[in-house]
Amino acid sequence: MAILSKEEAQAILKKVLSFSKADSCEVSLNGSNGGNIRYARNAVSTAGQVNVMSLSVNSTFGKKTGSASINEFDDASLKKVISRAEELAMLAPENPEFMPLLGAQTFQESKTYNENTAAMTPDTRAEMVGKSLGVAKAANLDAAGFLENSTRFNSVMNSKGLFAYNKSTNVSFSVTIRNKEGTGSGYVEQDFNDLSKMDVLALSKIAASKATGSAGAKAIEPGKYTVILEPLAASDILSNMFRGFDARSADEGRSFMSKKGGGTRLGEQLFSENVNIYSDPMNPELPSATWNGDGLALKRTDWVKNGVVKNLAYSRFWAEKKGVEPVPFGRSMVIEGGTQSLQDLIKSTEKGILVTRFWYIRSVDPQTLLLTGLTRDGTFYIENGEIKFPIKNFRFNESPVIMLNNVEALGKPVRTGSGMIPPMKIKDFTFSSLSDAI
Amino acid sequence: MKRKDFLYLSGIGASALLLPDFSAYANPIDPLQALDKIDVKIKKELADVALNAAKAKGATYTDVRIGRYLNQFVSTRDKRVQGVANTESFGVGIRVIANGCWGFAATNTVTKESIAKTAEEAVAVAKANAKIQGEAVQLAPQKGFGEVSWKTPLEINSFEVPIKEKVDLLLNVNDIAIQNGASFINAALFAVNEQKYFASTDGSYIDQDIHRIYPTFGVTVIDRASGKFKTQSALSSPMGMGYEYMNARPEDKVSGVITRYKGRYDILGDVKEATRVAKEKITAKSVEAGKYDLVLDPSHLWLTIHESVGHPTELDRVLGYEANYAGTSFLTLDKWQSKKFKFGSDKVNIIADKTQVGSLGAVGYDDEGVKCKQWNLIKDGVLVNYQAIRDQAHIIGLTESQGCCYSQGWNDVQFQRMPNVSLASGQAKLSVDDMIKNVEKGVYIIGDGSYSIDQQRYNFQFGGQLYYEIKEGKIVGMLNDVAYQSNTQEFWNSCSAICDESDYRLGGSFNDGKGQPGQSSAVSHGSSTTRFNGVNVINTARKI
Hints:
The complex is a heterodimer.
Chain A: H1 6-18, E1 24-40, E2 43-61, E3 64-70, H2 75-91, H3 115-118, H4 122-138, E4 141-158, E5 163-179, E6 185-192, H5 200-213, E7 224-229, H6 231-242, H7 247-251, E8 277-279, E9 301-305, E10 308-309, H8 316-322, E11 333-335, H9 342-347, E12 351-365, E13 370-383, E14 386-390, E15 394-398, H10 400-403, E16 407-410, E17 414-416, E18 419-421, E19 424-434
Parallel strand pairs in A: 7-12, 11-18
Antiparallel strand pairs in A: 1-2, 1-4, 2-3, 4-5, 5-6, 7-19, 8-9, 8-11, 9-10, 12-13, 13-14, 13-15, 15-19, 16-19, 17-18
Chain B: H1 2-9, E1 27-28, H2 40-56, E2 61-77, E3 80-98, E4 101-107, H3 112-130, E5 146-151, H4 163-179, E6 184-200, E7 204-223, E8 228-233, E9 253-254, E10 260-261, H5 267-283, E11 285-286, E12 290-296, H6 298-310, H7 315-319, H8 333-337, E13 350-353, E14 374-379, E15 382-383, E16 405-406, E17 415-416, E18 420-423, H9 432-437, E19 441-453, E20 459-471, E21 474-480, E22 482-487, H10 488-493, E23 495-498, E24 505-514, E25 519-527, E26 530-539
Parallel strand pairs in B: 5-7, 11-21, 12-19
Antiparallel strand pairs in B: 1-3, 2-3, 2-6, 3-4, 6-7, 7-8, 9-10, 12-26, 13-14, 13-18, 14-15, 16-17, 19-20, 20-21, 20-22, 22-26, 23-26, 24-25
């Protein structure tokens, strides 16, 4: 029941709108169906599955909007949810930033759904986790991991003629494998729309080899180092920066994108020339829905070109105020790179540090986007193009803006974390103290 | 995620406002609907359906939670109302043990047929996983309590206070800020009501009505000429109370460089002072990095306690159950078994408590039917205990659970969550002024700010809201760009003085994350102002 086809969703939404008496009305219908297994100490700790579907209504009179929602779909319930939203709209204060609804839009057909993933069962999940546990047990290591799959649909229709529908699947897997002594730890995480791309056995083997390889870490002095960031580590830090590409907070003077004296840094060379960032819902490796919550079509958008800020996101309200076209935030960020592998980047490094991932990243100063956090699950010293030995974890204090001004080389982007991210070689990365954590 | 994006786009992200993680399945409702209650008799009938259906399929233990989770969120920005959301999430979560393994399933279709089917699904999940399971689950015995109930002691139910009153109050907060020179202000009020019904095959039928409240704001001051911006967040605390929290009495105000609050809160008074100090921050001097004695106000210290004491004493982390997400713990079982691991100085006594009135963690019974209590985690500086639930109790030689099991909603499985974890006040009489008089070179920190700690809880870095330089026993001015870094054991062993009980206040987290899939919980941490000697302070200023 929870996953409706485009036609089924459209039929319910049309019926709901036919009951509306408001100046304008927007209805959304969403459902999901998913399950998960969590394991630790080489055994399953929790597992479950949840199916849900619900319908939400926004009714507007003038600039007054009311919302209501329901999870029953007979005619009486649909009428009830409409009348409740309309009653609440009458009572609501006017919203001076209310934007009239968009009319019909054209959206590309997304590539987010995969039948294999939708067909997963508790037994499929148990079998996959069994493979991961097998790797850990065979090597006398301890695994803790999480496997989750979901199928969902999202649809929206409004009284001005807009209709949008998207169906998607996702399977995500992560595992931390540690040695029995607790002196070594390795980690991998990966998600795909298509189950057939997910190889839990190969991924678990990488985590196991890092668990063994990171044991017996040596302490080296904190300071500025050349770092090779694996794509996951780069993604951990940069996802904090993407949210700052917002025109309104920049115009208001409260963002690293704000310009001294007023205005934004749009058009400025803020990063190294080899930095190019864009988003594209049709990227075959990282597909996303082709519309956002405002009903705007998502399309390929350049955010940074040769280090210059090319676009900031403008909500419909802020775009109108500033007299520009709205620019929706990108959902699937791609940082362009080259063809070099992680190994190639290591080979080209005389002295440096390889970082598997970062952890507990928090903003220290929003003015400069200074972040702090720590390395985790495999940090290694590189000398003369080779990994020499594992090193103890560091705390860093660094701004991604400064980091992207110190880019020496970018490798081949891979799907990781929130985007398509290349491995990166960065000079003068600031580590401020040592951590005993493993 | 969507909600956070929305709020970020609206500019609220810039003011470090903490947002609760409302259940993904919460539905907007009419505020008046929030006052409806479901008859306990009906809940018992539905619960029995689940218990019987699971047993028929071979479950050896079952618990069922029928939950109605209400949230109210009123948010304002400058002169306008940004959003008023009343949400309800209602459904049933069923947890079973079958073939020695846990299984869980949940549904928002609350009918007898759907509940029976969901109970069967939970058993099927358990049986599928039992094929790859190692050791069978060992559940600590728990006596059934029969039909019992518990309610947060409150004077005013927040959901009964008209929305207009809350909107007017927040817009008044914003006016005060703007009139006093703020560039922007966001003010918000959150109210939560968990109506939880728990039943298990142990013979308990527990009905609980739990309330929480959190008023907060973020003031931003922008200096266009220099391009600098500074913020100050509210010095309120989320509490396990009703709307009476918003009515501060004179005895709730703690005077000093800025007014702080205990028990109850004055949001109008706080915003006026917040705007004053945010303006002062624009020109305050940048700290010189080095070793300082820190004097930490309870409005700041709660978060350091939470991260460096609360999390590492969670038994599931110690055992490795959180290894893939939140991490493990440096407080390994051998340190506890030695009975002499010096976690902190002799002055450090840390108490776990699920009963403290007004705290976020206070309930009558936890989410697996265990009656709540109080116990020591650190005694005279030595590690003496952990936080455990029923399937972990045997590992630390306990014959019963400590009652730390919690789930954020009906659709999430319950697991070990932190009770209130608090630092006991000093026994000898000591005021904040007397503590500062003895500090030669120090920093006095008020309010919580940036926080980060490693996955075993050794190395941490904390910032705050306000920093004051102490020289030769006197506060000489405000500082900027302060953060302190330390190692948990070193830090707590540098604890040299704790103010007496008259300074004791609660801080807390409305939204503490843990688990996969991620869950949020609310927890309080109490302390009096405390001194730590010779801590490493760094300067966080950068140029981009």
